[in-house]
Predict the structure.
Amino acid sequence: MELPFTTEQFLNVFAAYNTAVFPMQVVMNLLALTVIYFMFINSAMSGRLISWILSFFWLWMGLVYHIIYFTTINTAAYIFGILFVLQGFLFIYAGAIHRKLIFRVTWNWTDIIGALFIIYALLLYPLLGYQLGHRYPTAPTFGLPCPTTIFTFGVLLFSIKHVPRFILIIPFIWSVIGFMAAFKLTIMEDTGLLVAGVIGTLILYFRSDKPVPAI
């Protein structure tokens, strides 16, 4: 796959985005912490709130990052943007309206894998990127597609109900496409994207409702 842009151009898009939207990166991280908090709360509203936040992440990535910024160097970003926006509406449809997404921490083996993905997305991803020379603002911050997709798979693994398979299609596609591009651009922290996409999709595709111990 030949990319229509250079690594320098790609990193410059991050710089333009990060500079323009600051302090939105702080808001994104606070929203991620809010998701984690509500996964521990046994509330009928938790699943809907988490679904709304995930929806916001994907709508933001589609409209703001892909369509406004990434299209400046890659016209295919219009397609990515549309897909990400669609994914945002799928979270609203499945989680906020039909309540097919219910999250609870039970610490079974899928929760542990989900927690590892979340920790990677929020902590290890930026630390590894820093060690590899990707420094702010020319670095992919949380709220951008790759770390946020990893986080999404981590959260979905905490669902106690079978996750509708249509929810997995776009994140899985992006995990493959995003990794292939990142590999060519030597953004090696995105290796976690492929790992989360493949492992997360396989688990969620075949897993049924998760047994939940009585409180």
